[in-house]
Amino acid sequence: MTNPIINLVNINKSYDEDLILKDFNLTIQKNEFLTLLGPSGCGKTTTLRLIGGFESPDSGQIIFDGKDITNDPPYEREINTVFQKYSLFSHLNVFDNIAFGLKIKKMPKDEIELKVKEMLEVVNLKNFENRKVESLSGGQQQRVAIARALVNEPEVLLLDEPLGALDLKLRQGMQIELKRIQQSVGITFIYVTHDQEEALTMSDTIVVLKDGKIQQIGSPTDIYNEPNNAFVADFIGESNIISGVIHEDYLVEFSHHMFKCVDSGFAKKEEIDVVVRPEDIELVKSGTGMLDGVVKSTMFKGVYYEMIVEVKGFKYKVSSTISKEVNDSVGMNIDPNNIHIMKKVIK
Fold first, then answer.
1. What is the tens place of the pLDDT at every residue in 215-270?
2. Which family would the database say this protein is a member of (predicted)?
3. Does the domain formed by 240-343 have CATH 3.10.20.30?
4. Side-chain half-sphere of 316: how many Cα atoms within 13 Å?
């Protein structure tokens, strides 16, 4: 059963002559972690700013819990935002940074103290209330910024690439932390990123954008395993995208070989695109597999080896725990469940 909290209805937005969003429609559910994912310039931050009230659409409606808030200013929306630059007050300690919004509302002192301490527990900063924010690590400062936003009890929290300034290890740790916080407070998080790993790690729902248009909406598993088109397949993780022909239901030809697959509903002899993930290719002895190729490069990635294997002019990317040397001849097998068929995009 759906339980929408935000509906963007036929949104159009331009900057000067540059059309960013055209007839854009999106429904966001209560209590979900939704990520807007795409390359720079795809419209994801514009979408976030429209929801937050920092921008106004040229046309269309923004509906919040059944109410039209299209023209409401940010301070009248039950929505708070955490930006990439946390904008903490350096002259205030952790407690006063978090309490800032509550003091503006003139909330009683004892109630402020209770709420701030509860929020410090939520973001794992208990006993940090008297620390200066400048003495904190980047991850700790981010959690203060999140606590400052959440203590006001918004219905929705917007996060605009908040992990961008952190190093890789800290960023990975904060991905887990953000998901934990979202589940703990039980509100809607709308997250903007161009990082596929972040989206796959944290999200309940991913919205993949390109040129202001939605390419696919789905769970991380659906987006990864069942991409709608070549753009999604290529943008979400590594992919081999090969031209092929459907001969009949469950039978496809690519790389001059007939493969069984699990897809149906295509026209006979229809030209299609095939997606095969690098980790879904099994290396076997040359001459014993479905395909034969020659290793062109090998790179050690820590847990696995990433190889380029040339098969009849097409270069497959293969991820395997089995190491092969450059110029080795290898065989490759692909399970029918790991062959995904997509319609070709007419350009």
1. 999 999 999 989 999 899 989 988 999 999 999 999 999 999 999 999 999 999 99
2. Belongs to the ABC transporter superfamily. Spermidine/putrescine importer (TC 3.A.1.11.1) family.
3. no
4. 31
* Bridge partners (DSSP) listed for residue 192: 36, 160
Q: Tell me how far apart the alpha carbons of residues 111 and 133 are, in angstroms, rounded to a whole number.
A: 23
Asked if 289 contacts 322 with a C-beta cutoff of 8 angstroms, the reply is no
In the chain, where the domains are located? 4-230, 240-343
Separation CA 28–CA 50 (nearest Å): 14
Per-residue pLDDT reduced to its tens digit, 140-196:
888 898 888 888 889 999 998 887 767 777 788 888 888 988 998 899 999 999 989
Classify domain 4-230 by CATH number: 3.40.50.300
Residue ranges with strand state E in the chain? 4-15, 18-29, 33-37, 59-64, 67-68, 79-82, 156-160, 188-193, 205-210, 213-218, 240-248, 251-254, 257-260, 270-276, 281-285, 291-300, 305-311, 314-320, 329-334, 340-343
Q: Which residues contact 229 (CB under 8 A, 6 or more apart)?
A: 215, 216, 273, 342, 343, 345
pLDDT of amino acid 1:
61
CA pair distance 305, 292, nearest whole angstrom: 18
Proportion of the chain in helix, strand, coil states, percent, rounded to 5: 30, 35, 35
